[in-house]
Amino acid sequence: FPASFPRYPEELAWHTNLSRKILRKSPELEKFHQFLVSETECGNISRQEAVSMIPPLLLDVNPHHKILDMCAAPGSKTAQLIEMLHADMNVPFPKGFVIANDVDNKRCYLLVHQAKRLNSPCIMVVNHDASSIPNLQIDVDGRKEILFYDRILCDVPCSGDGTMRKNIDVWKKWTTQNSLQLHGLQLRIATRGVEQLAEGGRMVYSTCSLNPIENEAVIASLLEKSQGALELADVSSELPGLKRMPGITKWKVMLKDGQWFEEWKDVPSNRQTQIRPTMFPVKDEEKLKAMNLERCLRILPHHQNTGGFFVAVLLKKSPMPWNKRQPKVHQKLPQRTGDTEVTAANSDNGSECIAEEPTLAENEESKKMQELQNSDTEQSKKEGVCGPPPSKKMKLFGFKEDPFVFLPEDDPLFLPIQKFYALDPSFPKMNLLTRTQEGKKRQLYMVSKELRNVLLNNSEKMKVINTGIKVWSRNSDGEQFGCAFRLAQEGIYTLYPFIHARIINVCIEDVKILLTQENPFLSKFSSETQKKVKDMAMGSIVLKYNPDPEKPDDLQCPIVLCGWQGKTSLRAFVPKNERLHYLRMMGVEVFKAKRKEEESESKMEEEVQHRLAQTEEGMDVEDKEHDLVTKMEAEIGEELSHSPVESGSMEVENKIEDLDQSSKNANNHVSQESKDADTSDVKD
Known about the structure:
The protein has 22 helices and 28 strands. The strands form 7 sheets. Strands 3, 4, 5, 8, 9, 10, 11, 14, 15 and 22 form a 10-stranded mixed sheet that branches. Strands 16-19-20-21-23-24 form a 6-stranded antiparallel sheet. A 4-stranded mixed sheet has the order 25-26-27-28, covered by helices on one side. Helix 7 runs parallel beside helix 8, helix 20 packs antiparallel against helix 21 (621-642) and helix 20 packs parallel to helix 22 (651-679). It is globular and about 85 Å long. Mean pLDDT is 80; it is low at 326-377, 388-398 and 612-684. Residues 322-388, 596-684 are annotated as: Disordered. GO terms for molecular function: tRNA (cytidine-5-)-methyltransferase activity; tRNA binding.
């Protein structure tokens, strides 16, 4: 049985000792497995290795924090960070945000999928090399400043030897060479992270490796070159009950051929490209003691029956020594996107800038050059365009993304939306964006004002893969009712506080009807709901369920659904897994419907196999194909008319399309098998 994970706050983490294979294959656990898959898909559950939950917890995130996840894919830790930002569900737009980065373009889309489940307007996915991720700029009271992050998660690529329990490949492929090759990259990523960390900020460095070359050696080197700007935080009192070991202070370096080295001076010259000085422990005892390497966390697999993990929490007390410099020219320069102007403008604050201070003559020359280079950029910024023109052609380093275009303040598109839904005057319409620069806008997305600031000021230096939450979708039928855009379920909890019209309060029985029937007639709803609908024009609506404290047996949490009111019917536009989630909460059994669907599919497969056997005996293929397809149509038709609906508004059409495709596949399958039977006597 699942049990709560004692190290995780507020019993928000649960674990089970069942293996993945048992969970998937065991008939007794089929219902539990479907529950996990369905709830994971709609964002209510995130499944991950227990020990990998620790780094985000030690970041100590608050809703106002600006967070950078440097090596974020596949995104389980990013999901934790987003949840922490939205700790107060009554605040639709927290002041903080998460920028999740990964160097692998394809893995970025996996990261997008993970983040999208949580429906947050405060997440942005970018695609950069973490060791050289660019400095971003933001507008603060009319002047440009470099963005420094309050929290940084630095979960670097590693050899993964801590995963030896679940990853068989580690036993086959592990060599000491792995850590020697990764050490330099890990140190560069960690160094770039602390450069972008705000003073007083916290960075967590972690690996799923137990090799000191990837762990304590990186931290020691970072602390040594920081010259007191960084310190290891003492987190021994955090996460009580977590079994751990302190970091180590002595280790040796080993080559693939088995040679051991205790000091850098012992390494022969022909090996000094493989082994670097930063891989060795610090010899100066005073320096070593001041580093407090024992404050690092080493978690071994047998401690909590998990994988192995290393975690170090770094605090930044002052700018890094290579960033400290006194500016020569103390003046505010005009607000521009050029790096030279931003560098000089921020030097008054003592902000960290690596570039050297240019002379006055160089300043004049660079101003002229950047005026020419940035004219197009400035024009795009005025129009609210962030990113390149639309193109989905595959490039050397992945797809070129569509631009992010913010709606202008006077855009005629927004006025009918505002009027139709009676949006509150406080609604932040400047945060609405689309992904198209030309033609009809099909989807409207929303970001927080802080992310809008980041997007508008960094469109040329940042490769954004995805951001924003979908709040409205174009519906051509809606134009005749006064608004061409219907509400999207993904963004309804963000939008709802600002909507003052087209809201219908429904009882729990009405909610069950909406979620189990595709397009129910109004006569099926309660009399109160029918009265409210009668006085309302057709089009997109909000369906709100408020719990009744006097009925403790009913569902005791509010539900907000997007719907559509027709002439004689009322329907909900809710994705399949979200429907199943709400029905489970109301005590409606959803597993039977799923099992019936699977039984229907297995019957189809049996029919195909039976048909193949008959074909080999010389029966007429075309007549039997026709019988098979007719039977499949009848079964799916019966399922559509009798089983509870578990899908969105377009599910019926999709099932019909699937039926057509299944029929074609069956025909092709039967025909091919018939040909094979004619040409070969050896057939399994």
